[in-house]
From TrEMBL:
It comes from Flavobacterium enshiense DK69. One of its GO terms (cellular component) is plasma membrane. Monomer. Keywords: Cell membrane, Flavoprotein, FMN, Membrane, Oxidoreductase, Pyrimidine biosynthesis. This is Dihydroorotate dehydrogenase (quinone).
Length: 339
């Protein structure tokens, strides 16, 4: 029903406007008695064989919602009704910021893709914390970044602020230094500044009553040499794992007229490269750390490929928009078929 009826209507309108409309609609519908239960019965797959224990956390199934969809933790409970095993919020920054000027979100229908240059638009970490205080059982990842106005030399402090604010309210952290939409942010992926950033957060983590897993989200545009550096950095800093991958700045092979837009590309064009990165990290590290696979998952088979390449968990974003919530169920069903 989604692809035949709902998506064609939604795709007639501006992507960002549709995003906010959909949020409002899901929130409104969820207030109607029984709707939450109906959604769960339609999309959730409850089976012990789907459970995964990864970096010390128990996931009811390995299919999550990637960061960027529920930036401000406004809809995590309602979104979990669609069968996700976990929800990643953010990217959050210490202070709220508008992000980049509109228009900043573009569909590439011919490519089943999206280009975004949102620029970490969010209401700030403290606003999200207030909403997370109402969480009752949804496993939450907290994706953190720096404010646009913060120079790279002072970026570590922004990540520390977000880490401290979210510590009591998220189950794991994701350090985002790989978005292409904040000026110079990707420079923090270089070995020296990245090691310093992660080591600082790990030192801070060690002072807490219970250490929370810290993951690093990386770009798909890294070279093999840079990926080997990532393996070294994970080993040196002892972070919990890696999320592979963020959006790409590549435009190879695109058909859509919107391919000229600046920003990060997600969707089907990223399927192959994301899986390649997962396999490279898994093989070259000898499976030394968990990987969350994200990028171009539009079918259950796409998800299985990433799991077989070495991912422990997977996440959806653009595939969820193009294929609808039935994709979550299809992936979990396919995993059970192979169990």
């Amino acid at each position: 029903m989604y692809k035949q009826l709902i998506r064609p209507i939604l795709f007639c309108f501006d992507p960002e406007a549709v995003h906010y409309f959909t949020f409002s609609a899901v929130r409104f519908a969820n207030k109607i008695p029984g709707v939450s239960a109906i959604l769960k019965s339609c999309y959730a797959v409850n089976d012990k064989r789907l459970e995964r224990e990864v970096f010390g956390l128990k996931f009811k199934n390995p299919v999550g919602l990637a960061a960027g969809f529920d930036k401000d933790a406004k809809l995590y409970k309602e979104l979990s009704d669609f069968g996700f095993g976990f929800i990643e919020i953010g990217t959050l920054t210490p202070k709220g910021q508008e992000g980049n000027p509109k228009t900043r979100l573009f569909r590439l229908r011919e490519d089943s893709a999206i280009i975004n240059r949102m620029g970490f638009n969010n209401g700030g970490v403290e606003e999200a914390v207030q909403r997370l205080k109402a969480n009752n059982g949804v496993l939450i990842g907290g994706n953190i970044g720096k404010n646009k106005v913060t120079p790279n030399e002072e970026a570590v402090r922004d990540y520390e602020i977000c880490f401290d604010a979210l510590y009591d309210y998220v189950d794991y952290f994701v350090v985002n230094v790989s978005s292409p939409n904040t000026p110079n942010l990707r420079a923090l992926q270089d070995k020296e500044p990245l090691t310093q950033l992660l080591q600082t957060l790990q030192t801070r983590n060690a002072t807490k009553p219970k250490q929370k897993p810290i993951l690093l989200k990386i770009a798909p545009d890294l070279t093999d040499e840079q990926l080997l550096d990532i393996i070294d950095i994970v080993k040196e800093t002892k972070i919990a794992g890696v999320i592979a991958t963020n959006t790409t700045i590549s435009r190879d092979g695109l058909q859509s007229v919107n391919k000229i837009e600046m920003g990060g590309l997600s969707g089907k064009p990223l399927t192959k490269r994301s899986t390649e990165v997962i396999r490279f990290l898994s093989e070259k590290s000898n499976k030394a750390f968990p990987i969350i696979g994200v990028g171009g998952i539009h079918t259950a088979e796409d998800a299985i490929e990433k799991l077989e390449a070495g991912a422990s968990l997977v996440q959806l974003y653009t595939g969820f928009i193009y294929e609808g919530p039935a994709l979550v169920k299809a992936i979990n069903k396919k995993i059970l078929e192979k169990a």
